[in-house]
Write a structure and sequence with these properties.
The protein is α/β, with parallel strands linked by helices. The chain contains 22 helices and 20 strands. A hairpin with a 2-residue loop joins strand 13 and strand 14 (about 420). Helix 1 (about 1-15) packs across helix 2, helix 1 (about 1-15) crosses helix 6 (about 85-95) and helix 19 (about 485-490) crosses helix 20. The longest helix is centred in the C-terminal third of the chain and has 33 residues, at about 525-560. The protein is elongated, with a radius of gyration of 30 Å. The model is unreliable at about 100-105 (pLDDT under 50).
Length: about 575
């Protein structure tokens, strides 16, 4: 690889200012010279660039090379003719485009490819598909690991597909490349032993054409699925439909599809078909192009449960992106086979059902602490609902500059367990929003984000308070619990740990209603709760008083600067 890096630096230096696509130009030069050397072309130094390109048999690749060498001088190309044929081949096969995040989006990180190849365990004679193959990073490494397999790749980006075809042409084994859409061109009958897909992240399903064969078949197979959210599970569906009964597939997907409500029914159907083998939570920054948290999902047939693996801490720090060492990969493979406390365990279908088919590993691997006198939160709740999902425009139209009997509370109005004394006023509360109004004694809990915020509402007589959609309004059975007792628990170390245990997401934690109902809380006799709450509320009142004093002092400081200066 050291020689490749040196050649890469030489190209970068020589092509600087000569073209706006130096990587594509360098690959085109290297590939063109490989073709010329391979046929032992005579008098290369007397040829023009178009004459040189006649050595390229594939029409699409010839077009790609000519396009990227536009403006590049012949003398610059000829000075690289001195390089060894094998080095030029290796450059085409292994050099990466690090020029932009967009370029990296069509290239699977080497660490991802290496782990996927070890999991797939490709054998001689097996058929292998790379769906959304990009520039062929996975296929090239897979071939060098097992040259005796039969490889196929599908890629719709014409530039990436041309580079993919270049690379496949330099491989001696059986490689078929198709320029086409992975949601249309891979599930029309052919089945594969091993499959890999690093499909585009966060493609909105509403933007995907219904005319694509794979999309139509997905909705035909899963009637009743609403066309919304990302297309992740449509890509996954296409992958497993192309998988042999004894096959195995690996996909890279953002975490959202593993826990969000919009994909719950799809996850349930995949689990019902016993298609999901394991979920591996990957470290951050494996991709140079995005910081979106991702997981590696392993598919196969006839699975009795799902192996959950947390590999988020298995990596080496890199300058631009994190990497897997061989030891990291070995540790992940070990976790795929064996239970490791807080790192890996197999989760049965019944437990997945109890958790709303959430497939995020951390949900099942967090260390659970048994609470003394613990009961499910649901047993002391009368109702739970989200606040009003007001748009910014809706709220702007409702805001009043003058005091009214109607106010609005947002997440930002809760600080240190206390509600701001001065909440924004609104002109009125529309009839369809009144169900989102808060009553005294209601517990308000933040739905998204960490640290979680929790407060007990106190609404003055004659006033109405509207909560926004980032808050849960929890009405408790006060014959069983005091709201301030529950607030105190949720703000304690054990309460925070319990909330984190039911939350999903990596970048932003999110609590669902179903999970909230299953939260374990300690329930002591009401009389003991009341005794505790007396002292607790005194301290809250003291905090509120100190906040008022601090606000007054801050106002005095602002007004203290001498006039006339």
């Amino acid at each position: 690889m050291e020689q490749i890096y040196k050649l890469e630096n030489a190209f970068a230096s020589d092509l600087r200012g000569k073209t706006d696509k130096p990587y594509q130009a360098s690959i085109s030069i290297a590939y063109l010279l490989v073709e010329l050397k391979s046929i032992a072309a005579k008098n290369v130094d007397l040829m023009s660039i178009p004459q040189m390109c006649e050595a390229i048999q594939d029409d699409e690749i010839r077009w790609y090379v000519q396009e990227n060498l536009s403006g590049v001088e012949l003398d610059l190309i000829l000075q690289y003719y001195k390089y060894d044929l094998d080095l030029l081949k290796s450059y085409v096969l292994f050099a990466d485009d690090r020029s932009s995040n967009k370029a990296m989006e069509i290239s699977s990180p080497d660490s991802i490819s290496r782990l996927a190849i070890r999991i797939l365990n490709i054998q001689e004679g097996e058929s292998v598909l790379d769906s959304c193959a990009g520039v062929g990073s996975f296929l090239v490494r897979a071939y060098h690991n097992q040259p005796g397999a039969k490889y196929s790749g599908v890629e719709m980006n014409i530039g990436a597909a041309c580079l993919l075809k270049m690379r496949s042409n330099l491989i001696d084994g059986e490689v078929k490349i198709k320029v086409g859409d992975a949601l249309s061109d891979i599930i029309k009958g052919e089945k594969f032993d091993k499959l890999f897909s690093n499909y585009p992240f966060c493609v909105n399903l509403r933007t995907v054409s219904d005319n694509l064969y794979g999309v139509r078949k997905f909705f035909d197979s899963y009637p009743g699925i609403i066309k919304g959210g990302s297309a992740d599970w449509v890509f996954n569906y296409n992958l497993v439909e192309s998988m042999k009964e004894s096959g195995k597939a690996v996909a890279i997907m953002p975490l959202g599809g593993l826990f969000n409500t919009s994909h719950k029914n799809i996850r349930a159907m995949f689990l019902k078909r016993r298609l999901i083998n394991s979920i591996i939570l990957l470290p951050s920054k494996l991709f140079a192009s995005t910081s979106i948290p991702v997981a590696m999902v392993v598919f196969s047939h006839n699975n009795e449960g799902v192996r959950m693996v947390d590999a988020s801490e298995n990596y080496l720090h890199g300058r631009r992106q994190n990497l897997f060492s061989e030891e990291d990969i070995s540790n992940i493979l070990d976790a795929l086979e064996n239970d490791i406390p807080e790192k890996s365990r197999k989760v049965g279908i019944e437990e997945l059902l109890e958790n709303e088919y959430v497939l995020e590993p951390q949900r099942y691997l967090a260390k659970k602490e048994l609470l003394k006198n613990g009961v499910e939160f649901e047993s002391v709740i009368k109702s739970v609902r989200r606040g009003a999902s007001c748009t910014a425009a809706d709220l702007d139209g409702m805001v009043s500059q003058e005091p009214t009997d109607f106010q609005y509370i947002m997440l930002s109005n809760i600080k240190n367990g206390v509600i701001d004394e001065e909440l924004p006023y609104i002109k009125e509360i529309p009839e369809n929003y009144k169900k989102y109004c808060v009553e005294s004694g209601d517990l308000l809990l933040s739905k998204n984000g960490y640290p979680f915020k929790v407060v007990v509402a106190e609404v003055p007589d004659g006033k109405q308070l509207l909560a926004n959609g980032n808050l849960y309004i929890i009405r408790l059975d006060t014959n069983k619990v005091n709201p301030y007792y529950i607030k105190a628990f949720l703000e304690s170390e054990k309460g925070i740990a319990a909330l984190k245990e039911i939350a999903v997401g990596t970048a932003v934690l999110n609590i669902g209603v179903a999970q909230l109902n299953t939260l374990s809380i300690p329930l002591i006799p009401l009389a003991e709760q009341e005794e505790f709450v007396k002292d607790y509320v005194k301290k809250l009142n003291r905090i509120a008083k100190l906040r008022r004093e601090i606000a007054d002092i801050e106002d005095e400081l602002k007004a203290s600067f001498p006039e006339g200066n």
